[in-house]
Model the fold of this input.
Amino acid sequence: MPFRVVQWTTGNVGQRSVRAVIASPDLELVGCYAWGPDKVGRDAGELAGVEPIGVVATDDVAALLALRPDCVIYNPKWPDVDHLVQILESGAHVVTTAAFITGHALGEGRDRIADACVRGKSTIFGSGMNPGFANLIGLVSAGICDRIDSITVTESVDSTGYDSPDTERSVGYGLPIDDPSLPELVERGTAVFGDAVRLMADALGVELDEVTCEAEFAQTTEDLDLGSWSIDAGCVAGIAASWKGHRNGRAVVNLRVRWRKGQYLEPDWKIEHGYIVDIQGQPCVRTKVEILPGPDFVARSFADYMALGMIITSLPALNAIRAVCAAPPGIVTYTDLPLVTGRGFVSA
Ligand SMILES: NC(=O)c1ccc[n+]([C@@H]2O[C@H](COP(=O)([O-])OP(=O)(O)OC[C@H]3O[C@@H](n4cnc5c(N)ncnc54)[C@H](OP(=O)(O)O)[C@@H]3O)[C@@H](O)[C@H]2O)c1
Done:
């Protein structure tokens, strides 16, 4: 029997999730939540850019939960603790990409979520590409060393085509390069990486003294037209953040992101177009995950290429559904689940 799933919103990530659910023999889409009133009443397939599939999007949460889905694939712009509590209390499991790894970044909301899991005998798991799958790659890479001095995971990408202006502005994009609020915005907006640092340290058996966040910024020297929004010259178009877990005065875990937009960045940060794990120890290990279009991939614009980023964000959560449905109730991470693979997606 396929797992019965509800798709929660159909933005950049959610659209790829819907497409993957349709393609998966293990999953059946039984409902779709729409946040935007313009999407209510429309077919989920159509919202995902494919043929209609006979599942109509609704904002009626009770009606969706009355369908008794096994799992909700939760991809909204911001996590809504009230909604998560409602879903988990109903007994539906949750896989999410929305700023959730251990839940600590949600503060008291985490306790409410954990309580809802107990009441509903349900489980929540958070993963995207990064944080998420990239942390798993880091931990797996560390498994061949007999001494680990430090482990650094870097996401180095050009995000010019990522169309989520609110989430981008929330970390400081578009603000004047000398705006004093920038470091605090980055720390607040990327707080989920702090959870990922603690998760990795915990998995490596390390008790951290402290977790810190450092940020650097780059400006665009020309106005940037990004389609649905724009960034003026002299404003932030590049952000680098480094979340570090320290022990005995050394950064043992370092999760770095380096994101740039446009051609006119100053400083002109070089981008590696992927995810790099760098382990210092014995031996030193470098693992690079490059994300490249398949031979049949068609892109008419730079923005179209972002579909690859959305696939790699949505699939780790979706691929975990089988394991999450079988897990004990509560908040689970990669360190609690059996190996999550690409089961069901091998082409015919
Ligand atoms: N870990 C990773 O690797 C990674 C990578 C990329 C993104 N993400 C996260 O994944 C989530 C989805 O990203 P996305 O690019 O798909 O986002 P998005 O397209 O900007 O927004 C997703 C959907 O959220 C709904 N929405 C709009 N305003 C909202 C609000 N104020 N509160 C709650 N929901 C709202 C809309 O739903 P409707 O479509 O129903 O109107 C929208 O389509 C975000 O939390 C993002 O930060 C994680």
Observations:
- The two ends are 20 Å apart (CA to CA).
- The pocket of NAP is lined by residues 9-14, 34-36, 39, 75-78, 97-99, 128-132, 164, 167, 313 (CB under 6 Å).
- The chain has a mean pLDDT of 97.
- The CA atoms of residues 171 and 188 lie 8 Å apart.
